[in-house]
Amino acid sequence: MKKTLQYILISGGVVLLSGFLVNAMSVKKEDHNIFEQAEAELTENPLASEETSSNHKDDFFDNYRTYAIDLPEKLDFAGEKVPMDDPDVYERLDREFLVNVYWQSNSLLLFKRANKYFPIIEPILKRNNIPDDFKYLAVIESGLTNAISPSGASGFWQFMKAAAQEYSLEVNDQVDERYHLEKATQAACDYLNKAKRSTGSWTMAAAAYNAGLAGMNKQTTFQQTTNYYDLYLNSETSRYVFRILAVKEIMKHPKKYGFIFDKKHLYNELPTYNVMVDSTIENLSDFAKSKNITYKELKNYNPWLRDRKLDNKDGKTYYIRIPKK
């Protein structure tokens, strides 16, 4: 029995191997036929391949260009002058311009999203006396998406959970207002106004948004300067304001930096209305259906709703956005 089984297995292996060799030879033969066909075509026109290759190379080298960027002679952030005559400042800024100008797909997406979300962010900044330039801080933080960082920072303004709760945002398993653009923008304004009072300038307030107030105060005390451009900082914070400056300049002057698009290419916020809710919603899919929208639409317009239901035993008032049909 054992010998018979071994024989069958060995025989089967031979048959399988034999079949594989036959198939392989067949494929090889077909490949050879294809090669012979191509060779025959080249024999008829021996210069065709060489000419095509040469033309492609010529077109590439004749038309492909990568240009250095002429930086603006003057720049400011929130009305505060950037020392462009400082060689270190120039080099750091040049880096961020090159990254953003030549990362075309990402930058083009930023233009598209800005048309949709800046009209929501701008009036909240203005109402809180925050310079309009800070909308570009949201751009570099999240790309104007509800991003989640490896450390857990979330939403357009990239709040950590503890910081979000400190600035009156609700964060739990069912509700996370870091994803509520209006409320998160208000929280960011509260932080930035506090940072401005603490650091003395909007530029330093922006840096503190990345490094934290305690971190910036520690550095300014040790290094004996409150000028962001004179501070020796970690790589992320040392790039932070320069990234904002580059994005601001490029987004304000798209054609100057090679970004060509029409209004029809930009994203738009669709009209919505608010529904007040002060009780529990057992099933958000049923709730969506009762409003003649899909569950997907409900979640897209209200990303702060993190569960399939909304427990509201305390009768808190929420406003849920519903797209107009």
What would your notes on this structure say?
This protein is mostly helical and 325 residues long. Helices cover 57% and strands 5% of the residues. It is built from twelve helices and four strands. The protein has helices at residues 2-44, 48-63, 87-102, 104-127, 135-142, 161-166, 181-199, 202-211, 213-223, 235-252, 284-290, 295-301; strands spanning 76-77, 80-81, 272-277, 318-323. Strands 1-2 form a two-stranded antiparallel ribbon. The protein has a two-stranded antiparallel ribbon with strand order 3-4. The radius of gyration is 30 Å and the shape is globular. Mean pLDDT is 88; it is low at 1-32.
Name the structural class: mainly alpha
Q: Can you write the helix and strand succession as a string?
A: HHEEHHHHHHHHEHHE
As a percent range, the share of helical residues equals 55-70%
Cα-atom Rg, whole angstroms? 30 Å
How far apart the termini lie comes to 76 Å
For the largest beta-sheet, the strand count, sense and barrel status come to: 2 strands, antiparallel
- Give the oligomeric state: single chain
Question: Strand arrangement, largest sheet?
Answer: 1-2
Provide the β-strand percentage band.
under 5%
Number of strands: 4
Mean pLDDT: 88
| Gross morphology | globular
Residue windows where pLDDT falls under 50 for at least 5 positions = 1-32
Number of helices: 12
List keywords for this structure.
325 residues, mainly alpha, two-stranded antiparallel ribbon, 12 helices, 4 strands, globular, disordered N terminus
